[in-house]
Amino acid sequence: KHERAVDKEQHKYKIAELEEKIEKMSEEARASTARAQELALLQDRSIVSGDLIRRLQTNIEELKAELKEAQFAFEESEAHCATLKEKVTKNDEVLHEITEK
Asked: Which range, of 9-13, 31-35, 64-68, 89-93, averages the lowest pLDDT?
């Protein structure tokens, strides 16, 4: 009888030990699952961020090209204005000469 009582106590102890291990493993599994979900979310964000970065880089390149075109057009119009200013100055000189006579 004494041996049976000791065996029962040992079984209870082992069962309690196993239940504790199971609970610990369940907690670890939940934590692992939560971490996996976090990583998946971060990966999704990273993919979105990567796409966004590529789009922004494309937009920047397009804007740089537009800026170059605008600068070229500005320089052309500036040169045209300088030419017109020269013509006006020459016409003024001619007009002044005619009106003096």
From this structure: 9-13
Q: Please measure the distance between the N-terminal and C-terminal CA atoms of the chain and give it in whole angstroms.
A: 146
Reading the block at residue 24, the tokens are 């610990």
* C-alpha distances in Å from residue 91, one per residue of 23, 24, 81: 99, 97, 15
- Give the integer Cα–Cα distance in Å for 33 and 39: 10
9-20 pLDDT, tens digit each: 888 888 999 999
Distance separating alpha carbons of residues 96 and 83, to the nearest angstrom:
20
3-class state of residue 6 by DSSP = helix
Residue 87 identity: K
Which region, left, alpha or beta, applies to residue 44 given φ > 0 means left and ψ of -120 to 50 means alpha?
alpha
